[in-house]
Every structure is written in C-alpha cells, then in structure tokens.
Amino acid sequence: MKSTKNQPSNPFVLSGYFSSKYFCDREKETARILDAIQNHRNLTLLSLRRMGKTGLIEHIFNSGEAKNNYDCFYIDIYPTSNLGEFVKSLSKEIIGKLDSKIENIIKKAAVLFKSIHPIISFDSVTGKPEIEISLRNESRPETSLEELFSYLQQKESRVVIAIDEFQQITHYPEKNTEALLRSHIQHMTNVEFIYAGSQNHLLRNMFTAYNRPFYQSSELLFLQAIPLISYMPFVRKKMKGAGKEITPEAVEYLYNEFLGHTWYMQYTLNRLYTSSLAVITPLELKQQLDEITKENETLYLGYRNLLTPTQWTLLQSVAKEKGLKEPTSQSFTQKYALATGSVLRTLKALVEKEMIYEENGTYFVYNQFLSYWLRLRY
Ligand SMILES: Nc1ncnc2c1ncn2[C@@H]1O[C@H](COP(=O)(O)OP(=O)(O)OP(=O)(O)O)[C@@H](O)[C@H]1O
Ligand SMILES: [Mg+2]
Description:
With 378 residues, the chain is an alpha/beta fold. The protein has 17 helices and eleven strands.
C-alpha cells in the first residue's frame, strides 16, 4: 500500500501521527488534558521515553474539540540550545500559521512583529519553500519573546501551546529562562500550556521543587502504558485488515515481554505486518523478537564495553528479574553473585546512564529490546 498524508502503508505507525484510526485508546488522558485546557490549567505530561507523549499531543491537536475551540501551536525544543533558538522555534510555529500562502505570511508578519523577521528559504533537497526566522537583535531574544507573547495575548481566540522536551531549557546558558518564561506565562489569560518531557529528574524537579519558578504551576500527568484490554483489539483488527490472524496469546506475550511499552510493541508488530505469516502465535512472535534483537546484537555488546563488569552483571540480573523489587535482599544478590554493599551504588550509576529506570521502588531495564536480549542470552 502506498503511504499518503492520512494513510500510512503500515498501520503500526512508528513516527508521526496519521489519524485517530492508527492511534490506540488514550481516551481518558485525552479527556483529562482537554478538561485542563478548557479550565485554564496548564499541564505537564511526563512518561518514560517512547511511551506516547508526542503522539498524544498530536492526537489532541487533531481532535475536533481542539480544532474548533483553540489555536494550537506545537514546538519540540530538543534541538534548541539557547533562548534565541527557543524564540526562533516558537516564532516559526506561530508565524507559519498566520496564512496558508507563504508570501502572505511574510506580509502579515511584517505588520505584526517589529523584532522578528521571517525569511523564505528553499529546502536544498526538495526545493520546497520554507520559513526561517531572524531576530532583529540576536543578543536580546527576550524582546522578541515579549513581542510573541503580547501578540498571543491580544488574540480573540483561545490558544494552546505545547512545548515538547521542555527539560531542554535547563541546559540553556541563560540561567534565567525558567523565571523569564514563568513571568510571561502567569499573566496570560487566553493561553494554556502543555509541557512534555521524559520522566527523569530534570523535568520532575522543575515542577515539584519549591524553589523553582514553575513550582506547582501546572498539573502533572504521568502517562502509563496503554492497557492491554485496549491494545489487544487494536492490534488484532489492524492485522485482520491485512488478512492476518494474531492470537490473543501472542498479543499478551508481546505485552508482557515489554511491559506494554508502546514503541517496542509497535515496532515488533510493524515488522510482523510485513512478514508473509498468515497466523501469528506466541511462537512466531518470539521468532520475530529473536530476529530483531539479533540484528542489534553488535550494539548491545558495545554497551558491555561501556559498563564496568559489575554494572553489566547487574543489568543482566535486572533484565532477568523483569522488575527488581529488593535489590539488597540476600536472595537476589546470592542468585547473581553480586556484592550486597555495592548494589545500590551500581544501580544508581545505571539509572544515571538511563540504562535502567526506577518506578515505585522497582527497577527495570529501559530499552525493552536490550532487556529481552539479555534474558535470552544470559
Ligand atoms: N496511542 C497510540 N497508539 C498507537 N501507537 C502509538 C500510540 N502512542 C504512541 N504510539 C507510537 O509509539 C511510539 C512512541 O510514541 P511517541 O513518539 O509519541 O512517544 P514519546 O513519549 O513522545 O517518546 P520520546 O520520549 O522519545 O519523545 C511511536 O512509534 C508512536 O507512533
Ligand atoms: Mg516525544
């Protein structure tokens, strides 16, 4: 099948958002976020990497409720490294939506903004026109930020701004960025914000440490795995659409191996969808997982060289336990011949390297494919 704007060639989408047809569940979360926006509450969306934050924001922005009631803007600030780049990213998104014709955009922006200039550039590969932003005074991006926010504030309509990978602002050299943004945001009555990012200490601290500007300024939503009860019919229906049968046991097997972690399940199913198999049982599923992890073996063996022998052994044991609850218990340390005294320190080092994560006192390997491979191999 040829891929079009609204129809992917494979129903197990791995990046970008096509339509609600290819998006599973998230009904409660969608309702909760829309309710927050409606009632002027800013919201912070946190989850493990690749659980579905960006997809959820796109899903919400594509909903009738958002389209009919709000002007929605989305920026991913992961590639930005200072306030100037942040301002340019936001300017590009806002200015880019002023009109559908690029020439009109330039004209309108010239009237609206004194310090922000859009320039037309042409993509070197596709030749397509694109907007680039230059700031009148590159050394004072805060002036342009103020201009952008006052433009939004005087709009008749209500506005939603989603800032993805928000923790990135903590890496900017301008240490006052948090305070600067907060001071603008708190005065705007028609603009709501969704901040999204991965659930590590950076973003969490920003909103929960009392001495930080964003302390308690928004409600927190921790995005969990899609429940199996929703994912099961979604998967089976999509496979059926291609004349394939996947057994409930196979879906359950996949879900349990990866603890419902969205991207890993979607990736495996994307691969299975293109295979010639007519029926997928746990056996075929396992074969597919063996194949995927085998392809990545060199990468996984590379991790071994980056870790100390103790870290590597502990990583294996966390993978095997599929959730390690009591790392210092004698039964655990004896089983894997680990020195009790160093377990907590080693776990901390692995968490810092984002090789494992901790949730409610239980430790898991972050990369679910690596985790599967470690269970298989060791
Ligand atoms: N509700 C859903 N139904 C089906 N697929 C989904 C759903 N949500 C996310 N996905 C898929 O899961 C993968 C991860 O989603 P997404 O990129 O939104 O996660 P993320 O939390 O933003 O990740 P990151 O932390 O890396 O930015 C993508 O392949 C996406 O297409
Ligand atoms: Mg994302």
